[in-house]
Every structure is written in structure tokens, then in C-alpha cells.
Batch of 2 targets.
Target 1
Amino acid sequence: MATAEHILVALVEDKPGVLNRVSSLLRRRNFNIDSIAVGHTEQPNLSRMTFVVHGDDAKIEQVRKQLDKVIEVVKIVDITNNNPVARELALLKVKTTASTRSEIIQIVDIFRANIVDVSADSVIVEVTGDEEKVDSLLELLRGFGIKEMARTGRIALPRGSVAPLLVEEIRMPEQPSKPLSSEAESPPDW
Amino acid sequence: MKKTGAQILCESLIKEGVEVIFGYPGGTVLPLYDTLPQYPQLRHILVRHEQCAAHAADSYARATGKAGVCLATSGPGATNLVTGIANACLDSSPIVAITGQVATPFIGKDAFQEIDITGITLPITKHNHLVLDVGELARVVKEAFYIAQAGKPGPVLIDIPRDVFQQEAEFVYPEKVDLPGYKPTLFGHPAQIKRAAEMTNGAVRPIIIAGRGVIISQAFAELRELAEKAQIPVITTLLGIGCFPETHVLSFGMLGMHGMAYANKAVDNADVIIAIGMRFDDRATGIVSAFAPRASVIHIDIDPAEIGKNVRVDVPIVGDVKNILEALNKQIVPRDHIDWFNQLDQWRQEHPAIEIRDSEGLLPQYVIRQIYEVTQGNAIIVTGVGQNQMWAAQFFFYDKPNGLISSGGLGTMGFELPGAVGAKVGRPDETVWCIAGDGGFQMTIQELATIVQENIDVKIAIINNGYLGMVRQWQELFYKRRYVHTQLSGPDFVKIAEAYGLPALRVKDKREVTSAIEKAMEHQGPFLIDFVVEPEENVFPIVPPGATLVQAIEMPKPEIVTPSS
């Protein structure tokens, strides 16, 4: 089956060790993740994780289901088919000289990126966009020399009125249909 | 009135209906042990190694359906639990493991007997929690028991620093749990159940493959109704043994690596497979790409992640087996499948499953069969791992619900003796037989002391062949008989038993088997029999690694000796 890139987003309880649980699970299940980004949400006590994963449908389904088994993962959805807006932020520290600085500024302008720090021999460029835009800018600036780079990994929201991760109310889980402990004392006959 | 963390823990356990704790004291749990005598309704069984506390709790949980509880101190006490927790995790057994931790000011300082046990057990627990505030202890215990037992059961670990045991808080046990991220699906989707019913009703060569999920869900009657109404043969996984009476006309044995050849043939030829509470483990499927090539698969499981994990599924139904079968059975049309049964019977005759070959020597299979005969099947069998386990699965007929307790997923040698302890403590009115190999028995042999101290009436049969038998068998069949490090000497098990203070017998002669088993049964209290069996007996059939289920090696036919030769 063909592999494709998927974007999964999860709402997780904001508790210690959640990221550790999630990343440990991804490693031990041998899932390769292109990126994870974590941040707050509009709701207190809930964080949002965005995963970019490559794989065939069965693999992606397993990633989603296994992550859903982590107790603190409240909800996880694959928004790939919701036409998502996906963005990442990159900070690039580019070498400069008196002769290259203006050329770099021109390139940065074309990409609607910003220069957020200037020193004698380098600038820090801040760029936001989809992965392709960040990659293209990176390619153009590489020739000047990249001293350091930080990228956030992608975050994403589905376009339009769809809000698959809107948790309107957090309801109590249902108790098991039978009290496990009382019936167990006398195992039933066939 | 305020209570200490230790008191809050004990009272929370009592609220959860806990009667027994398998444990081992140590520095960080001293405040808890000091408090235990205030709660005499909590029986504490002192094991001789923490691994066995976890195994006993696991087996207790399997025998009773209630969560088992084990307790250990920080550091080595906690790490010794790890194998037992992993075992419970892979076999979906609900245990709550409680560990002590160094006092909170010392956490992260590599203090004496400090270890990050929540980190270590992250991949082998369903959930775990380090309690940093005594005020959250009651809630954490409540959640632990809920998570351990709800949905697909599994182990939960609670790590409690020494000072949290000593701090005080108001004790309010929560009525309910509030876990927005954990809401197991209990009832199957009606549309999928309808599709499953239609597929079943239209099947020509259907089979049921039933696993431990049927036992956990206690869906014995519902499974039987489905099989009888639709006339479908029931094949079980290893851990599914005990979910359907094996002397029933529709019982068709166990599938998999050491499954009956006819059962594997049935799987290979089926057009519809109803897989119930099982997870298509590689030991059950053989090479998975060639598994059941002709079948449409209906998969019923409470864990959505199991569906489609190993085998493609045509009709997935997520939920509790009992609820789903109740709903499914209403839509099942009675059928007879006469042609299919004729075919199955023919295979059963061509591949006689499980026969004990003719031998003057003492055969392990014969020992198992005699335990079955003497107990008349009224026993809980707890096995080790390896040949003894497979013979116990093959040569005992499990007619009672949940009669076999065995380490399936992890395959933990040494499970047998602490497992027997847990089963007997949980079901004191049942006869419990521990079927051990001489290798595995030596891994947890120290629990003989636990058995004697607590007078736990388990009957122990050591299938003693002087080898790590299953590994030796693989060396014989797949490594040209190079027996590298599989021959092992053991102590005189009879003397060992006597030294621990329990009576024992050695049996080398076939003719003494029955009387020895009878003697063990008559004795009030634990009893050990060392059966010195044929050293190089093999488990058949065996599906070689990388082979399909129908490529099993069956027991070599005895050479035909003509009278003239």
C-alpha cells in the first residue's frame, strides 16, 4: 500500500510525563515520526500535539489507535483529509558580510520573512510557512552559510467550520457494565 | 479526621474489595508495613522475591477476575517486579502494583534504593503514577483499580514516596473516576454486528477462534450459544483454553504453533472466521501473510488497536465480548454445516491430534493425562513455559471455565510456582496443580518457602527431563541436534522440598504415576512430585518458524514392523 504523509492532532491532558509517554510509545511501536509539536490550547489543562507521520493507511491507523490508548490522550484525529492549514516556524542564523547583507535582506523580503536580530557577522531570520516555503528559503540562504537553525515542526488546523478536537464537555467515563469484582467469586456455569 | 498516606492507601484498597496483598517489605515502604496491622482484613502474603509477588497477583487476578495487588519497596524491590508486570501486561491481567519510592526531597538525587520505576514500567503498564501529594493518593488508587480492570485489563503501577505514606490528609474516597481520555467502548456497533451476523449466516465453512477475552468478559454461555446455534466449531488460542468445554462435540482444539493439525487445517480452509477476544499473536497465526487465506474475518475485541494490527479484518467489532455476543446471537440463524463437519471429521481422523505414543518409559504426556484422570478435570492448572506448558495445554481436557493459567504473551519461565500460589489464594476451594519444568522451577524455587509458611495447598508436578526442553527441541529440529547449553543439572527436588518442609515423591516408573498423584491429592497441604521423564521427548505438532499453520511437523509415525522381520 502506498505511503503518504498524514497529520494527526491530539488533545492531551496537561500532566507531567505525557510527552514522555507518547514518545516512548512511538519508539517502541517502531513508528517513525517526522515531527511532533506541543503547545497549549484554548482550553486550560489541555495541550495539543501535532504529529507528522509517513506510512500506509494501516500504519497510520495503528499510530492513531495506539496513541489513543495513552490514558492522558483525550482525543486524536487524522486531519489530513480536512484540508488543513499547516505551518511551521524556523529561525535561521545566517552568516553575513557587508557585501552579502543586502542580498540576504532582499531574499528575506521576497519570502515575507523577518530579520529579528542583526550582528556584525550574522542575522537571525524568522520565517513562518508551510514546509516547502521554509525549505525553499533555507535552500536560498544556504549559500551564505547557515550557522545555526531551529525549526518547530508543524502545527495544523483544519480549514472551515470543522473542529474535530472541540471538546464541548468532558464527560465522566462509563463504568464497566458489570462489577468485575463481585461476580467473579463464583464463576458461572457453561 | 486526618489520616496518613499509609492509612489512606490501606482504606482505599479495602474500598476496592482487596483481600490479599502479595508483597515484600523494605525501607521506603516501612511506614506502610507499620500500618498494615491496623487493617487485619488485608491479608499480606510474604513472597521470597518480588517478581513472584507480581506473578502471584497476576495469577490471582486471572483466577478470580478481581484485580491482584502486589507491593514492593523502592529500587531493587521495584525492578524485581518488572518481569511480573510485563507478564501481566502482555496477557491483559489486571494488577495494581504498589512500589515505595524515596522521600520526595531525594527524588532525582540517585538516593539509596532510588530508581525511576514509573519510567522503567512506562512501556509495560497500562498506566502508572508517581504520587507527589498525599491529597491525590485516594484518587490515584481509585483510578488505578478502574484502569486496571476496565476495557482491556492490564497492570497499573502506583509509586509512593516514603514521606507521602507519612503525610496526612482528609480521607475521602472518590465515588467516580474522571478520566476524559479513557472511555472504553463496551457495546459493539449495531451495523457491524448486523454485518457479522449476515456473514456468519451465509458461511459455508465457518470457525470460531476464541481467546482469553471470552474468559475476561465471562462470556462462556454466550460463546456456547453462538457455537451451538450456528453449529460452528470452536478453536481456541492457548490463553483461550478454558473458554469452551474441551469435551464438547464442537470443541476443535487449539490452533497455532503447537495446535492440533486438524484445527490449523480448519483455519486454513475456513471461509469465515469469527475471532473473539484474541489478538492474532504470531504463535497462533504462523506466518501471517499466509494465515487463513480463504477466510473473511470478523474480529471482536475490546481494544480497537488490536483490530487490523496483525491480520486484515473484514468486519471489526469493538466492545465487550459478552455484550457483543448477546447482540449477535439474536441475529444468528440456526444452521448445521453438515458438509463442513464431515470434512473436519475426516481431517480429525487423518491427523489424530494428540496421542500418547507407546512407550515403556515415563512420558510427560502420560503424566499430564493422569493428572487429568485423577482430578477428573476438576483442577486449575498453572503451567510454566515451554514443553511442560504445551503438554499441559494438549493432554488435559479443560471442561471448566478458566481452568488453565499460563504465561502466554511474555512466555515467562518461573511463572508456574508463584502463579499457583496466586490461583490457590484466589480460589481456595479449587484443587490447584502447578505443572513445572525443571528449568523454570529453578527460577522461582524459593517460593516453596512462601507455600510452606502460608500453608498454601498447591500440588506441584515437576516434569523433569534434565533439559531446557523446548529450546533443546528447537536445537534438535532446527539446529542439527547441537544441544548448546540446554542440558541442565538440577538439585534433588525431593530433598529440596523436604528441606523447605513439604512432602515430596520422585516418580521414574510409569506404573507409579497414578498412585503418586493420588497420594498428593489425599495429602492435606502442599505436595511435590518430581517426575523424571524421557529426556528427549518432543512436543508435536510443531509449526516451524517462518512456516504456515498447515506446514506443521507432526509426530513421526511409528515404523511398521511386519511379523516376518
Target 2
Amino acid sequence: MKNILALNSITKFYGKIKALNNVSFEVPEGSVFGILGPNGSGKTTLLGIVTDVLKATSGTYSWFDEQPSEKQRRQLGTLLETPNFYHYLSGERNLKIAAAIKGKDPNDIQRVLELVRLTERKNSKFNTYSLGMKQRLAIASCLLGDPPVLVFDEPTNGLDPAGIAEIRQMIRQLSKNGKTIVLASHLLDEVEKVCTHVAILQKGQLITAGNVNEVLVNEELVELGASDLERLAGILKDLSGVKQVKHYENILQVFFNNGTLDLGSINQYCFEKGIVLNHLQLKKKSLESKFIELTNNASN
Amino acid sequence: MWQTLKIEWMKVKNYRTFWILLIITIVSIPAFNYSIYDFGNNSFPKVRGQSLFGSPFAFPDVWPMVTWVSSLLFIIPAILIITLTTNEFTYRTHRQNIIDGWSRKQFIYVKIFEVLLLSILTTLVVFLTCLFFGSVLNKAPDGVSIFKNIQYLFYYFVQMLSYSSIAFLLSMFIRRAGLSMGIFFIYMVMEQFIVALMRNKYHQDWVNYLPEEVNDKLIPSVFERLVTSPDAKKNWENHIPIFLGLAALYLIIYYVVTTWRFRKADL
């Protein structure tokens, strides 16, 4: 599989501040690639560099395995940081400019306006739009001409819950249609919900990158409940693969080593020991705790 | 370039401020000249309905006169340039244009081209104004070619291009409209002040070669032309190539610096 984007030792200084330190990773074709990190971790700087609005202090990058140039940027739909449009022009006229720069057919404008539900307001000036509408116009602009690659920096910024759900649904749909999506976010569940791959940044340092299932899950979690929790906890300690048993409200959280988990055999084991489970649920380790764990380890 | 220019046109064609400033730029040239003409016409003694000194708005004097009067309006096209340039920074569309697929070179070159176009436009308006004042409001004297002194039109073009380019340079570096206009205006006034002080009080000649003054020198004011001795006039004419050369050098410096910065910097 070819790489859509490859970063090779990208370092960026703002004066004395090191915003990115030797960051390298590859975005494979067809992936939904999350760049995850807290605010100020360098996500936007990274995307700014690969879209040529910022210059790396050192290091190189390539799009589609080629030397970067404006021709490749026209193959991307990019939303970086904030929606940038001419305030005095209508949404539609702004999209006409974007389509002309990208070299896309202006007839596609109606379709993308419809997709983000801005058709009714297409003739209103951009400065009369709400924050959510501005964001949706920016997403419409990204979708112009149906580009093979989309780059979204905090795409759900400023959207209401329904808008957030819509955008996530759209990202999944785009991914299903074979698009490659690069998605920067500080929202853990956003990445967890839509991404196939992830790179985690902290203070400009790449902590880890790879398949979401490999990076974010190296242990598995099951929630168990029974009338006698103490006895249940006692017998679970002897079950093979169990790493840790924790009391959590009125259930038990049981951590298993990766690959050792089998819900059926847990149930059978408990039953054979004379305990009837009234709750048995598989949970991955929450991304949030994983994320905090990863970033903490790196700072220690 | 044509495609890029078409996109620039899409940015401004529905922008009211652009049209207002453009119309003011165009209309102010004949209007301001007419008010000076009218003032002169009604303020000096006349003999049998004819001005005692001959009208400075008749051929061939109309060329240095109208170009000088029009050059006083340099601030108006400068405001237009500053507005259009700093808008891109205010709306952060300079980034978006690059993200969407322009090269940085494309962005900066088309802006420079616009400065050039605007200077050509004002020069054209000045040309038509000269023709109007020379032929319609005044009778052309017999035996004098109406194109005598037309070189002033070229000097005017160089002046406008230089002043507008300074305005452009400041907008590209300062990025904010109000501040750019303020600094542009203060610079243009300050340079005049320094030139007057150094030349008249300390007899320093180098001030003639400052960025604004070297352009000012191309078109002497109507007062200067009245009092200049033939020797001084000859001396001034000999210096014209130096002034033009230096004006060109300054232009090259502005554009090399602005382009270099825009291509290398974080946007």
C-alpha cells in the first residue's frame, strides 16, 4: 500500500521554542489517520508544515510519494485551524474562489453546499454566519471536487452535538468511499470513534504512531457483576490471563492480558465455581486513561 | 497569470469598498485638477478674459501641471492597495489560498501585478485629464505639438508605481490595515520633513536620493518650475536618468525583499 503522506524527521522551532521535535510517520492510503494530542502539542503546526503555510526548520515530507508542490495540495481538501473566507462575500462566492484555486468544477458547489446543509444560506455574506455555519462552509470547501485525501484540523470545533455527530458520520462515510483522512484532534473519543490509525503528539514529541488497535489497546477490560462481589473477586484472581481486579461502584473491572480474553470461558469458569454472573460486559480500556498514561510516561 | 488574475477579480468584483475606493481614485484626478484650475482661473488678474501668465493647463504646460497636481493624490491608490493586501491577512485567506493550491510565488506575483495595473490605470486617467484640460478647456497654442512634455506622464507612472509599491511593501510586512496606512502616511510626511531640513538648513544633497524624494524630483511643483533658472533646469534635466535609475533600483529592492520574505516565512 502506498503512503499518502510521509513525514521524515520534521523539526520546527518558533524562536527558541521547539514546537516539533524530529517527527516521522506515514499515513497509509485509505486510512483515517488521527493526530492526537493536547492543545499546544504541535498538531496544527504539523499540518501547517505539510500544507506549506509553515516552513519546517528541518526535515522533509512528501505527498503521494512525490516532492511536495501546489499541484498536490489541489488534491487535498484541507481545513486548517479556523475557516478562512472573505467576510464580505457570500458562502457561494467564497466557494467559487476556492474551486477556481483548486481547479475544480464550479458546478460541484451546489452539491457540497447541500451536503453541509448551507444551500438556504448560500447567498448570505460569510460574516453573518454562525460559528457552526462557518465551520460547515469550510468543510464544504474541503469536499469540492471530491478530493482523494481530506485533512481536517479539529473539524467539530464550534459545532453543536448534532453537528458533531453529522461530521463524524460524514467522515466514516468518506472513509468507506475509499478516501484517506488525516484528522487532528484533542478529543480522544473523536479519534477512538472514527480513526483506523493514530499518532500521539505531546509537546512536539511523537509518542507513538500506528494502527489504532495496536496503539491504544494492549490490555482488555471486562466488567463483571454478581450478588457476592467479594467471592467473585476471590475466584477471579486464579483465572489465567487476569492482570488486575478492581472494585468499581457495584461491579468489578477485570483487566486481562492482550489476547487472553474469552467471555464464554469466564462465564463458564464462574459458574463452575458456583457463582452466577448478573453482569458481563466487554470494555476496551478507555482511551482517555490510555492517553493520559501514554503522555505521562513520555513526560516522566 | 491570467487564471490567477481572474481569481483576484472574483475576490473584488462584489466588494463594495473596492469599488468605492476605485471610483474615488479615478474621479479624484480630474476633480482635483479642475478645482485647482478653477481656483487659478478666478484668482489671477485677467486681460480681456485671458489669464495674464497664460494658463498652466494649456499645452504644453498641462503635462507637468496635471501630473504634479495628480501626484498629490498618491494616498488614495495607496489606501486601495493597503486595503486589498491587508484583507488577505485579516481574513487569513493568504493561508487558505496557499492551502487550496496556489504557490506562494503565484500569490505574491499577482499582488505585484495588481499594483502595476493600478498605476497604469491612474496614468491613463491622468493622460485623459491632460487631453481634456489641454484641448477642451484651453485652446492649444498654434505650432506647439500637444505631445511636447509628454515625458511627464511617464514620470507620473514611475511615481505612482513607487508610492503604491511602498504601500504594498508596508502592508505585506505589517499586515494590518490601519497601522500600514498610518506608517505609510507618517513616512511620506517625515521624509519630506527630513529632506526640507537637511537640504535647506545643512545643504545636504544625499536627501535627494531617498525613496520618496527621488520620485518627487521627477515632477517639480508648479512653484519650483516658475522660479527655476535655465541653468538649474538644465541641471535637473541631466539628473533625470539618475532619478529614474534610482527609482527602478528601489522598486527592485522592494519586490525582491517582499517576495523573498513571503516565500520563506511562516504565513
